[in-house]
# Entry
Amino acid sequence: MRGAHGIAAEIGHFNAVPDGRPCGCGRQGCWEQYASGNALVREARRLAAERRPEAGTLLALGDGTPEGVEGGHVTAAAHAGDPVAIDAFGIVGTWLGRGLADLTAIVDPEAFIIGGGVSEAGDLLLSAAQRTLTEKVDTGTKRPIPKMLLAQLGNDAGIVGAADLVRYSD
Ligand SMILES: [Zn+2]
# Structure
């Protein structure tokens, strides 16, 4: 789906929250402000500031302050059992599942393939997303629930896909 002007499927800019967080596109409340690697870091920093005693592992991986927390720290801390890092994944995964439920209504996919840097977190992200997706789609209408899979090329999936697009277009 490329659209009339080649800019279709900018699904990160669906409005998830009316008058929500400002987005780089100039609007407010876009989905990618809630379900993305940047959103994960924002949630982790916010939770770490509110629940400092519980966030010892997460804060130690950064420079000891919430502002020093980066994306890789959240994944490492969650794998190590840090409850704040795990909760940050739960929040972002829930937002991811909500948006995917809306996309299910539009494109009826067999599966969603999740890529990007944050996909390296695997089940930390996917479990909350799949749970929310299932809740939102399974409303008694017998609509099949799409699977959620990780991109085999991980964070390189986008660049490899772009190269393939050039290679196979004429
Ligand atoms: Zn936007």
In short: The mean pLDDT is 93. Residues 13, 23, 25, 27, 30 surround zinc ion (CB under 6 Å). Strands lie at 111-114, 147-150.
